[in-house]
Amino acid sequence: MYAGGGEYNVAYALSRYGMRTGWISRLVDNPLGQFIKNHARTSGMDVSEVVWVPYDGVGRADRIGLNFTEVGIGVRASVTMYDRGHTAVAHMKNGDVDWTRIFGARGVRWFHTGGIFTALSDTCADVALESMRAAHAAGTIVSYDLNFRSKLWSSKKAIEVTKKLVPYIDVLIGNEEDFQKVLGFDVEGTDEHLKKLPIEGYKNMVQKVVATYPNIRAVGTTLREVVSGLVNNWSAIMYYDGQFHHSRRYENLEIEDRVGGGDGFCSGFVYGLLHGMPPQECVEMGAAHGALLQSTRGDTSMVTMEEIRHVMGGGSARIKR
Amino acid sequence: MYAGGGEYNVAYALSRYGMRTGWISRLVDNPLGQFIKNHARTSGMDVSEVVWVPYDGVGRADRIGLNFTEVGIGVRASVTMYDRGHTAVAHMKNGDVDWTRIFGARGVRWFHTGGIFTALSDTCADVALESMRAAHAAGTIVSYDLNFRSKLWSSKKAIEVTKKLVPYIDVLIGNEEDFQKVLGFDVEGTDEHLKKLPIEGYKNMVQKVVATYPNIRAVGTTLREVVSGLVNNWSAIMYYDGQFHHSRRYENLEIEDRVGGGDGFCSGFVYGLLHGMPPQECVEMGAAHGALLQSTRGDTSMVTMEEIRHVMGGGSARIKR
Amino acid sequence: MYAGGGEYNVAYALSRYGMRTGWISRLVDNPLGQFIKNHARTSGMDVSEVVWVPYDGVGRADRIGLNFTEVGIGVRASVTMYDRGHTAVAHMKNGDVDWTRIFGARGVRWFHTGGIFTALSDTCADVALESMRAAHAAGTIVSYDLNFRSKLWSSKKAIEVTKKLVPYIDVLIGNEEDFQKVLGFDVEGTDEHLKKLPIEGYKNMVQKVVATYPNIRAVGTTLREVVSGLVNNWSAIMYYDGQFHHSRRYENLEIEDRVGGGDGFCSGFVYGLLHGMPPQECVEMGAAHGALLQSTRGDTSMVTMEEIRHVMGGGSARIKR
Amino acid sequence: MYAGGGEYNVAYALSRYGMRTGWISRLVDNPLGQFIKNHARTSGMDVSEVVWVPYDGVGRADRIGLNFTEVGIGVRASVTMYDRGHTAVAHMKNGDVDWTRIFGARGVRWFHTGGIFTALSDTCADVALESMRAAHAAGTIVSYDLNFRSKLWSSKKAIEVTKKLVPYIDVLIGNEEDFQKVLGFDVEGTDEHLKKLPIEGYKNMVQKVVATYPNIRAVGTTLREVVSGLVNNWSAIMYYDGQFHHSRRYENLEIEDRVGGGDGFCSGFVYGLLHGMPPQECVEMGAAHGALLQSTRGDTSMVTMEEIRHVMGGGSARIKR
Amino acid sequence: MYAGGGEYNVAYALSRYGMRTGWISRLVDNPLGQFIKNHARTSGMDVSEVVWVPYDGVGRADRIGLNFTEVGIGVRASVTMYDRGHTAVAHMKNGDVDWTRIFGARGVRWFHTGGIFTALSDTCADVALESMRAAHAAGTIVSYDLNFRSKLWSSKKAIEVTKKLVPYIDVLIGNEEDFQKVLGFDVEGTDEHLKKLPIEGYKNMVQKVVATYPNIRAVGTTLREVVSGLVNNWSAIMYYDGQFHHSRRYENLEIEDRVGGGDGFCSGFVYGLLHGMPPQECVEMGAAHGALLQSTRGDTSMVTMEEIRHVMGGGSARIKR
Amino acid sequence: MYAGGGEYNVAYALSRYGMRTGWISRLVDNPLGQFIKNHARTSGMDVSEVVWVPYDGVGRADRIGLNFTEVGIGVRASVTMYDRGHTAVAHMKNGDVDWTRIFGARGVRWFHTGGIFTALSDTCADVALESMRAAHAAGTIVSYDLNFRSKLWSSKKAIEVTKKLVPYIDVLIGNEEDFQKVLGFDVEGTDEHLKKLPIEGYKNMVQKVVATYPNIRAVGTTLREVVSGLVNNWSAIMYYDGQFHHSRRYENLEIEDRVGGGDGFCSGFVYGLLHGMPPQECVEMGAAHGALLQSTRGDTSMVTMEEIRHVMGGGSARIKR
Questions:
Q1: DSSP assignment of E229-242, as one string?
Q2: Which of A212, C131, C304, E320 has its CA 20 to 30 A from that of A256?
Q3: Taken in order F293, F297, F301, F303, is the CA torsion positive or negative?
Q4: Which CATH architecture has domain B96-312?
């Protein structure tokens, strides 16, 4: 049993690596909600701004979402079954959180959210807009992970909703299919199963994105080629200041549980940017953290900064003792 | 991880002891729904009348209910946290099932339902009425377990709804507090914590019930005195044909998991009635089965008919080898 | 703890994919026998024709067979230790089952058995002959999986016994070594460890088999090259109507537990034939199902038809969410 | 998964407490046989005289016996399902072991066997006689635990066989029902379920036994009153030199797993006799060890001599830290 | 695997019930130290004042202490094996922590420590004195749990060291044997095994203690009678303002794991005092919390305030649903 | 939970394969020490020369060392955290063991120790010298596994201490980095991460070693190329009588747990030498055993001689049944 979620995993990892982070959501006050709070607090995340709602004893009003994950191997893919209808967070609405105070008085430097939260409900989409606008107004950097989930909404709805959010995004993150399904930009040369990825097509597409939305200052993209349930090729590209930076390519990477890999990239990448690392190092840190995160079960990071730096530097998997 | 439910547990047990039973519900077609179907089929229950609905991938439309149970010991009580809002079965409505065909063409002898199903939603209350009426019309015996759950509805609502159902009940089942909370009949001399139960008060109350509703031909009541989380006193009383029959009293009964005890009584009791056993034997079988069911984890029966008969006969817990 | 067996696994899988199947064996009425019955019933298999024998309390007369399996990795092979002497099924004999009624009155379309059952005892070999003859006489299609097991009998005995059965076989199934050890047909060019398989040699051998036994209308063969304990190359060939059909080749397939792979092929293959699929699709379905079955622990299928079709179509192991 | 057996448990415990012991049986050379050898050697038992037979790969010729145990609670009794037919040890026969060398050249002081081994087969009964005679001739003390098991043989057969063995017994051990079922001596005043035990009746019976067989110098009897699956009353009586010695009575003793309790008594008792303790101390050590052994899962002793002495001395279950 | 410790358990529980608490220790920066930090942060404890030392990779310089606990039942007592030599905290010394800043600038209202920490080493005894003096000087209330552990020091040494600390204690806590072993005050009428406790003797002893040390304003004492490994009688007495207050007596309380019971009392008791509850309520809260804490595995509290209040009020262990 | 250690693993494996072995250490008499004794005795190792010391109840005087191992996958390396300071064995000193009697009177043919023991403390280094000298004087063959562990000592200290031991070594064992870190001999052409190993450089280095220390008659070296956490290339070289013998190269070997691989090589290698196998066979047995040992969890061998011979002969990982 693990706690996780798009923004949660990023905040968790950054807190684990010594940064002060907070996470805001709407949680039900029952043992499952407490489990999340406890897990969050192990990393030192500030959860004092979470909106708590009482539990009705049945799960009619507000629930904690559950995901059941099968881990794949060979030709069998990993599968996630969502049981996340009617969750407390899906009922979040404008006004629940005082974003102005948070981004202003509390002096937040970076705000991260993304497409899963936005997709949960129309009121969540409202909250995404409200919070991103407030962050933008306060001078807080806004990053957004497109994170398309076909079970949560259609591509058409995603594009329609996300278009309103893009003007407030400084740093855009996505994987192979997100740009197409959430922003409506096509990549030339992709095959249906995404087994081989056309790097040049990606770059052209990213250039179109930043030309269309000049407010976007950086774009981080993970590239995953699924060799099998156990083995993936993994790497990342970062666009920054007119240039592309390729991470080390992790050929034939074994993965214990691929869920959370994108958030692993995102948190490593944001860590780099917030520490003023050069772009190449940022993308390497993101890719290395994503690779390591996929070597353990669960969505959140269990590795150390020392391990990340070792892998970024091309270090081997030789035993440490 | 266990499958269970009021009617489910009764059908499961009777099927396990060689009777042909079926169970009707509304289930979502996802791995949790399949888990229930699989578990049901191990006992041989007929689940062909279950209404299946597709899963929306998220749990917004229809879910499978979840209960999280802590098993108590000492002064710590068992606790059940329900996560059963928005379940497929709560969305059941009149017309979903062709009750006339089932009680008529399929020749069902006995129909059992109860207060948990009725409490799930207004449409479930409608279905309870529809199905009980149809059973009654077809000459099928109707049993009803009052099963009050304060987390599902108020006593006021329960009384209001249940009053409409009582005219169709032949066999009424309840525990210590059900008659008061669901039917509105008081028992004199009960203390708040139900540690010591006033047997005479119960009998008076049952007599009032059957006087008010002469269609009720039998009443089965379980009596539980909670000594501690591990140890309970347990017994049952049956009213039949103007007379009361007391089961053996299980003094200082150790319980591994008390959930399902009432259903264990109910299934043993119905088994007796359907096999034409004398009333005393019916109540003994119910009480013995309930005692045994509480000696294993989970809601459904894992014991054998041989063990039930052994315990009914006052048999000891001496090892069999 | 898993239930499994050659014919059992095939019936289980076909039932899981919506077909009406039954399975006949001779079982002891103890908790282990009940475990098998329960597991079978989860898939909906009809086990009403199973011959039940009482348990003597000790396991002297009739037992349930046990297999202890170690799952290999690297250079360590999987190992199965059998503890299946004196099983109830090994004591099956002619007359125990009324095959004429089953294949006649119950209208069975397809009958599947194979070399493990036949090898259990001389009376089992008798029953194989009796049942296959009865099926043949009733116009039921007979499939037979050669399934050589050196721990159960010698190649010499296998050939001698199987020769009498072959005239009643319509569809023959085997892996690389079965044809040689059970039917006595050599494949040219095989090395001792079966690391690289000579496809042409197989085809020549199959053509000799069907020339010798013209009653055999289809032959399904799985081809496994053991790269390591974790990684195998896997594919299948089907001979039908004078032609060979090659499945997709699963290069470097990771396997979680290789036991049941052949039965996985067989059930997929039979599914195709019974649904009137073209031969190429039949062999693809068999190979895909076999590949998927090896991605989970235990002998029986845990995957869905949707996953099979996805893999048959060359689909990737990309996460579904 | 545990290793155990009547004689085995006694040898294991005595070795654990620092004595040199050996254990002789007939085992199959497969992973289960090796498991037993490994477990035995952890206590330092000498297993060099075990007769090993090769495994046929299937379990047709010789098996390792399996027992499946359910642990009871409340009204549910513990149940043991034996799967011990066709075991290697059941095929033991006269001449397999050179008893003369063992009791002579190796200087064994004490030989212990009992009614489970004797019941396994006619050839085992022969071996019991052969070995006890050889021990007797060599001046080795012979102890015998009557250990009646109704699943292994009838009382009639037990009496018939055991009568031939009794002349060679020096120390006789049994529980409440053994004397009646295996030797044919009745106890007056026992009820069918053995819930309350008539101590005086036992004493009279024991005196009849020693009068009939004056070679018996000591008799150890365990007395168990089964209050429930979790709680038993437990004590023991020793007859020695014309006198009875009662152990401390363990009222309302909680038991984690009652299997092995009798062997726990036996090993403690023999330990005392071999160390020249006075009779009262012998019976106390036996009863204390039996009580402690029942506080852990499995048949063999996991407690320390320090714990035994603490309990013998009436010590409490207060935490040690 | 659990985290725990005398002061830790108290801080953990109070934080769990909504109070702001902190915990100070000296920890090694390795995965075990991080495990403790993570566990502490789940309850919201402030661990920012913990003194961290690097790990030498081997455990020569500083370790995290380990306790291995066997949970008893029946006549078998729970046993704790300490592996806590050379721990980082045992190497704590005066000056490591700026107590003046903590009790002064940070405004701590209550300081709790006790005899386990003091016993770890001579430098720990120095730190106990330094910190208690600083707390006293800052007007912080000081509570001290005598907590005698015979494996850590002798009674003679304990008395000698503790005498210097007593002048700074406001609230004294202890169990049955602590006053004698740590302070040197005898209780008349105790038996060696502490099975029956002489209440009057205790009261006399407590009065002598407060007469000798008038700075002690309250004394909390837990009374445990060990019926068996599973069942204890449990209660508590509080001396305050010249009067004794007896808690509810928990007769035949079942315990899942008795470790942490005293800390459970202490934290409930302190909670009451800090919330200005009347003395009777304070001792009831302590006793109830201690009873509940012993109903779960591990040293730290897993129950809710609602459960504590329910038990304090004499509530039954009847299921909540 | 596993028992293990450099010399222990070698003795365990050789005993498992039928040789008489003993193991000498200094152990604490607590449950952890008993766990090691029990585990050792399962293989038949003689542990009668182990020096036992009492436990102080706290772990201040003498402890059993603990290692916590994370098993790596993908880019995440396995990690071992040692908690082995202040262990009983680290306090071993000259005179604790009567080496003259052991190598003389008990007729030991081979003595194996290595760099982990030597590194534990200065007194352990003394004992290494004392024991190796005594073995040498008695004509016992001495093998030494360099086994460098950076967490235990520096390379500088290792070289200084080991130089005194080398004159007594007959058979030297090491992996890629040991010769450099422990003996001070460089290999030309190694990269920092040891991903690709320069075979020729190794050979040159080994020749320098034997030229410098002509008493060394054989050198066994394991070569590991770490492809990933799951996959390594593995092989070994043996220098003997002026010639090099290369084992089969295990390309892309999957490893379940790499700890113990070197000891697996060592024990296979010594087995070959003691059985008079030709050098090529010795190095093959070592490499095969090391490969197999890494296919199971824990440090000690769980495979059979039959499996070793199968793998040595190039046998495949095809299932055995």
A1: SSEEEEEEEEEETT
A2: C304
A3: negative
A4: 3-Layer(aba) Sandwich (3.40)
Tokens at residue A204, please?
A: 């052209």
Q: Any idea which fold F87-312 has?
A: UDP-N-acetylmuramoyl-L-alanine:D-glutamate ligase (3.40.1190)
Q: Provide the residue type at D120 as one letter.
A: L
Give the gap in angstroms from C-alpha F288 to the nearest C-alpha of chain C: 8
DSSP assignment letter at D181: I
Number of neighbouring beta carbons within 10 Å of residue E109: 11
Number of Cα atoms under 13 Å in the Cβ half of residue B161? 27
Which of F28, F60, F70 would you mutate first to test chain E, the one with the most E CBs within 10 A?
F60
Cβ contacts of D58 within 8 Å, gap of 6 or more? C82, C83, C84, C85, C151, C152
- Is 0.95 exceeded by the ipTM? no
Residue ranges of chain D with pLDDT lower than 50? none
Closest C-alpha to B185, from B176, B194, B193: B176
CA torsion through residues F124, F128, F129, F131, sign? positive
What is d(CA C86, CA E193) in angstroms, rounded to the nearest whole number?
56
Picking from B295, D256, D297, D124, the residue whose alpha carbon sits closest to that of residue C58 is D124
CA dihedral E32, E38, E43, E47 (to 10 degrees): 80
Task: Parse chain D into domains and list their residue ranges.
Answer: 90-312
Which pLDDT tens digit goes with each residue over C272-296?
999 999 999 999 999 999 999 999 9
Neighboring chain B residues of A82 at a CB cutoff of 8 Å = 57-59
Digit-coded pLDDT (tens) for C168-192: 999 999 987 899 999 999 887 776 6
Helix (H, G, I), strand (E, B) or coil at B154: coil
**Assign residue C276 a region: left if phi > 0, alpha if psi is -120 to 50, beta otherwise?**
left
Right CATH number for A93-312 from 3.30.470.20, 3.40.1190.20, 3.90.550.10, 3.30.70.20?
3.40.1190.20
What residues of chain F have any CB closer than 8 angstroms to a CB in chain C? 250, 252-256, 288, 291-292, 294-296, 303, 307, 310-311, 314-321
* Sequence-distant (≥ 6) Cβ neighbours of residue C194 within 8 angstroms: C176, C177, C224, C225, C226, F316, F318
| CATH superfamily label, E6-22+96-312 | Ribokinase (3.40.1190.20)
Q: How far apart are the C-alpha atoms of B214 and B219, rounded to whole Å?
A: 12
CB atoms within 10 A of CB E198: 16
Q: Which two tokens stand for residue B266?
A: 């109910």
Cα→Cα distances B69→A58, B7, B81, B299, C113, Å: 13, 19, 6, 11, 45
User: How much is the pTM?
Assistant: 0.92
Contact A295 F259 (CB under 8 A): no
Q: Do D144 and D161 contact (CB within 8 A), yes or no? A: no
For every one of its 321 residues, what pLDDT tens digit does chain F have, with 9 covering 90 and above? 999 999 999 999 999 999 999 999 999 999 999 999 999 999 999 999 999 999 999 999 999 999 999 999 999 999 999 999 999 999 999 999 999 999 999 999 999 999 999 999 999 999 999 999 999 999 999 999 999 999 999 999 999 999 999 999 999 999 878 999 999 998 877 766 666 778 898 999 999 999 999 999 999 999 999 999 999 999 999 999 999 999 999 999 999 999 999 999 999 999 999 999 999 999 999 999 999 999 999 999 999 999 999 999 999 898 887
Cβ neighbour number for residue B101 with a 10 Å cutoff: 12
Closest chain F residue by Cα to residue D47? F44
Query: Using CB atoms, which residue from B30, B58, B85 is nearest to A61?
Result: B85
> Residue E93: what are its φ and ψ, rounded to 5°?
-145, 165
F290, F259 Cβ separation under 8 angstroms: no
